[in-house]
Amino acid sequence: MSPFEKEILERKLSIIVENLKALEPIENMTEEEYIKDLYKRKATERLLQELIEAAIDINTSLIVHTGNTVPDDYYESFIKMGELKIIPKELAEKLAPSAGLRNRLVHEYDLLEHSLVHAAVSMTQKLYLKYIKEIEDYISKSS
User: Fold this and answer.
1) Which residue of 34, 58, 127, 132 pairs with 118 in a disulfide if CB–CB is 3.0 to 4.6 A?
2) Which pLDDT does position 109 carry in this prediction?
3) What is the pLDDT of residues 65-124, one digit of tens each?
4) Annotated active-site residue in 46, 107, 114, 118
């Protein structure tokens, strides 16, 4: 992995870390508080979107780096990461649905169930912390 590629991956990881940190207060809000606060809802949606997109960019970069073709969709990018053993397969399968959340956040704002987005924050905190560790380990082994 070239220093340039490593730098890009590290920048994408820092977006994930920064957004996870920004989402911490949301995780502690009750669902009712969250639903009533338009600004927190919109900020949460944007933070989740950016975080998931950064992971998808990382996935695509690493998949191509290993000599494979770009996956057909974002969901598949997580599955392929597990198949290639870049991240554990079980983690990849749990993360893959976040691609669907990203699509809903981008394309269907008026159809979002705020309670599901709020619940996704906790899931995101748990799973993406594991994802970060796996990607950092992979990068360090590839350098």
Assistant:
1) 34
2) 59
3) 999 999 999 999 999 999 999 999 999 999 999 998 898 888 875 678 899 999 999 999
4) 107
d(CA 124, CA 17): 11
Torsion sign across C-alpha atoms 101, 103, 109, 110: negative
Q: Which of 11, 41, 65, 102 is catalytic?
A: 102
Q: Which domain holds residue 128?
A: 3-142
Measured from the Cβ of residue 135, the count of other Cβ atoms closer than 10 Å reads 22
Asked if 135 and 78 count as a contact pair (C-beta separation under 8 A), the reply is no
Q: Which residue do the tokens 């990018």 mark?
A: 77
Give me the number of domains the chain comprises: 1
CATH code at position 21: 1.20.120.580
8 A C-beta contact, residue 80 and residue 71: yes
Q: In 38-70, which positions are buried (b, 16+ CB within 10 angstroms) versus exposed (e)?
A: eebbeebbebbbbbbbbbbbbbbbbbebeeeee
107 is a catalytic site residue: yes
